[in-house]
Amino acid sequence: MEDERPAKGPKIVPVKNKMPAPIQITAEQLLREAKEKQLEYVAPPPRQKISDPEELAEYRMKKRKEMEDAIRKNRLKMVNWVKYAHWEESQQEIQRARSIWERALDVDYRNIAIWLKYAEMEMRYKQINHARNIWDRAIAILPRANQFWYKYTYMEEMLSNIAGCRQIFERWMEWQPDEQAWNTYIKFELRYNELERARMIYERFVVTHPEPRNWIRYAKFEEQNNYIKSARRIYERAIEFFGEEHLSERLLLEFAKFEEHQKEHDRCRMVYKYALEHLPKSSCEDIFKAYTIHEKKYGDRTGIEDVITSKRKFQYEEELKENSMDYDTWFDYLRLLESEGDVAVIREAYEKAIAQIPPIQEKRYWRRYIYIWINYALFEELEAENIELTRGVYKNCLNLIPHKKFTFAKIWLYYAQFEIRQKELASVRKILGTAIGMCPKDKLFRGYIDLEIQLREFDNCRRLYEKFLEFGPDNCTTWIKFAELESILGDTDRARAIYELAIEQPRLDMPELLWKAFIDFEIEQQEYDHARKLYSKLLKKTQHVKVWLSLAQFEAVIDESDSIDRARDVFEQAYKTLRTANDKEERLMLVENWLDFEKERGTKESVARVEKCLPKRIKQRRKILSEDGTDSGKWEEYMQLVFPDDEAVQPHLKLLSMAKRWKKGQDDVSTSTNVNTDNDMSTAKTTTETEDDNIPLPESRIDDEEMNDES
Do 499 and 526 fall into the same domain? Predict the structure, then answer.
């Protein structure tokens, strides 16, 4: 019995590379290659030679039957009708072909290709009347098919039937076709030099198609035929027809170029200006360029400046469209308009500018804006000379400002000065009084006081100063001005009382100015004892070196017998007082001024005595601390002033010098026993650091005399 073994399946071949092939082949490509490489060759049908009429009739019968069957299967397929008609035409069966075309038109009379082929067949066989009949039927059924009209007019023109062609054009124009049809009609008339007829067609054309390019074409037609006045009239009619709302940039450009060709530069300039005034600013770039080129060619300096001004105005307006709160651009724009001098335009621009109110009520946002109001008021007063409108501008501005949060003293003062120019003093005082009551400011007080001084109303000035000092008693300038006013008026006691009251104030913003003014006042009045008392009073408050120097200079300048001794006593007293101060630079300043005084007014002995007070400059080292206050491990050198009086107070300087000499003596003994210790010793620089407080001892230079004294 044979072993029954299971049947083996097909061997599976493992795919080694599953990556896509570098060149991908589509199914479409496979089908195309199979079609190109097909091996079956279909031989063309054999050519049949017809030798007698019977065979020809049989062939024709067979073809007609095939054609009719194809049409019967799908009568809406126009290709079968066209093939059938062309085949009959090739057999010279014109009547049969005509019948087929008619049958095709019965099936689809809207097929333009059938009409065209039908008429072309008649034209090929010079059947003119038949062709006219077909064209007439076609344009009657499909009057919007321009191909019929073009073919029909072309056929009549080729037949030299000009009148008939013109009649067809007129029939066509009644349907108001597109622009190309009108242009074709015009060119037809121009070919036969019928200018008047062409002009009449243009008149109807611009009415039917009122586009700027058609008006331009009409005007150029007149210009080419040297009808200059007629061309200019056409441009003017076109501008009137479109009006300001629908004005075309291209139309105005062509009009300006036309005037330029005729060398009418003034007319050309007027056209450009009209365009810039009435066209939208966004569509004026080409106008600006053409205007600039024209002025550079034919204009003078004024014309070129006008072009540049117009261009800048356009740029400003574009910037303001993007950001209406750009007040700097408003200033430039308004300044440019003011240079042109059109009051109505300037006023309108100012109204637009002041309407751009800052959205936030903070003074820093209103600073630039408020100047627009000021410029507006000045323009109305000085340029337009409209007083009532100027007053209204100031009032509206003041009503707009939120005075409870902030105010502008400048606008109040400008308003008051305007009323002064109008000689309305009552209004001026009312305005400034309202300003001080609503928002008291230093500038308002000063402006009001200056006004009253100019009017010589000194009692009002005193009352204003009193109000001013109630508002700001710490303002030293106000006290000084008040006292100066009384001094000018000759009331010395009142001025002195004001100064004394001022220096007794607990808080002052600049007391040094007040004290200086008071002292200068006393010196001018030659009240030297009062001046000395003031200096003494001031020195009780402060020991500043400039006060001492000023006192010494005062004593030295006054014309008295003991002025030099008094000045020297001031210097000595100042030097003793400043010894306890920590600021050594002030002491140095004092000693230097004292030395200059002695060199100028003193003796040699006094100069030598002051020179002994000059300090020495000693180089020392100190640790550098980091930002957090810890030791950074670094050292820095600095110069320290050491006055002769300070050396006696600082014993560590003597101790340091003695330590240096002892160390030097020990070194000399160890090296040589023949060294004479009485010789002069040179100064050595050393730096030592104490163990107790870890503070570096200063390194100083010791003079020979000092070393000998201490030894």
Answer: yes
